[in-house]
Amino acid sequence: MKKPELGTRKEVQLDNDIAISVKGVKKSFKLPTERSSGLKQAIFNRLRGIKGYTEQKVLQGLDFEIKKGEFVGIVGRNGSGKSTLLKILAGIYYPQAGEITINGTLIPFIELGVGFNPELTGRENVYLNGALLGFSNEEMDKMYDDIWKFAELEPFQDQKLKNYSSGMQVRLAFSIAIRAQGDILLLDEVLAVGDAAFQVKCGDYFRSLHDKKQTVVLVTHSMTNVRTFCDRAILLDRGKVVMDGDPHKVADEYNRLLGIKKK
Question: In order of start, what are the domains of the chain with their CATH numbers?
Fold first, then answer.
């Protein structure tokens, strides 16, 4: 029987200035070290106290709060715990210890295009993806033309999605996703979609989010985006918060950890 998670994640509607609260959050994964060739070997290993796995501690007691209206960058080297934290915030994982409180509705921009069907046309996929985001057909009718205009893919609406390039699919998925309205946006490197011209358009969109004080959490490796868009940044290293504050100083410390000299 699977051991229940001990941590909590809850979504609430509170009248205060805190959008996200993270208290003492821990998360570990079991990594197999060897395979048992059969039931007999598995029983023998258990009797000898051989677990057959090692425990990887990914998050080791994270504590921070994000206020409403903040644009916050979460940064760190590969293996620092960023992706695990992202998935816990999104509700994909649950913490093994600690507490996550989401104050409001959270929209995750993770794995753009999940739910797309390659055998359907672009037009059909727009309505399918919109339905997955909770939009009615009437709502999709109203935003349909704007979706294609933003994606710059109007001539391809009636082609099957399997004939789109991967870049075209991501551009269409991104154009649909930004129609979702929520109190908090959770972004995973979505600024990297499309070609250079489309990235400029995406940057303009996120700059508008910053200007209107939308609460945004950006998980990224791009220190340019951290310096450009973020009011604040949090640096993770080996599952712990090692720096929290000015995005320029955090970006400099991130580069120092990577061995990149300041110009």
Answer: 8-105+217-258 (3.40.50.300)
